[in-house]
Write a structure and sequence with these properties.
This protein has 7 helices and 5 strands, in the order βααβααβααβαβ. The chain is α/β, with parallel strands linked by helices.
Length: about 140
C-alpha cells in the first residue's frame, strides 16, 4: 500500500458525482486498488457522521435514510484495507504533539498513521496537513 485516503477523498468517492469525483477516479484507476487504504480514524469520522444524522432524525423517513447511509458506509468500507491506529502510530502522534503541530485531533491521528507507514496522504486539506514535517500529501481532485 502506498496511498492513504483522507476522509475528504473517501467522501468524494462516496458521492459519485462532480468534477472532484471524476478527477479522483481517473487518478485512482491508474493504479491497482491494492495501493490504497483508509485509516480507522476515517472509519470513526464516517460512523460519527452517520450516528449524528440518525440522532437528529425527527421522522421515520429521516431515520430510515440515516440507517441506509450507515449500511452503505459498511459496504463501502469493505472495498479497501483499514489501517489501525497501532503503537507505532501512537508514538508518531506523541512526536507530533511534542512539536506542537496545531491541527484537529482526528487529522493528527490520520497524519500519524500515514507517517508511521511512510504512505502518501491523499487529501484536499493542505492547510493543516502541510504543518506536519515529513508528511507527503497530494490532492487528486484537481
Amino acid at each position: 500500500m502506498k496511498y492513504l485516503l483522507d476522509t475528504d477523498h473517501l467522501s468524494i468517492l462516496q458521492r459519485q458525482s462532480g468534477a472532484d469525483f471524476h478527477n479522483l477516479v481517473a487518478r485512482i484507476s491508474q493504479y491497482p486498488l491494492s495501493e490504497f487504504a483508509i485509516s480507522i480514524i476515517t472509519v470513526q469520522e464516517q460512523m460519527l457522521g452517520c450516528h449524528a444524522y440518525i440522532n437528529r432524525a425527527r421522522d421515520s423517513r429521516s431515520l430510515v435514510k440515516g440507517y441506509e447511509m450507515m449500511e452503505r458506509l459498511i459496504i463501502d468500507l469493505k472495498r479497501l484495507p483499514i489501517l489501525s491506529f497501532d503503537a507505532i502510530a501512537a508514538e508518531t502522534l506523541e512526536h507530533l504533539n511534542l512539536q506542537r503541530v496545531q491541527m484537529a485531533q482526528m487529522d493528527s491521528r490520520i497524519a500519524a498513521i500515514a507517517l508511521s507507514r511512510k504512505m502518501i496522504l491523499l487529501t484536499r486539506n493542505h492547510r493543516d496537513f502541510n504543518k506536519v514535517q515529513g508528511l507527503i500529501i497530494e490532492d487528486w481532485t484537481r
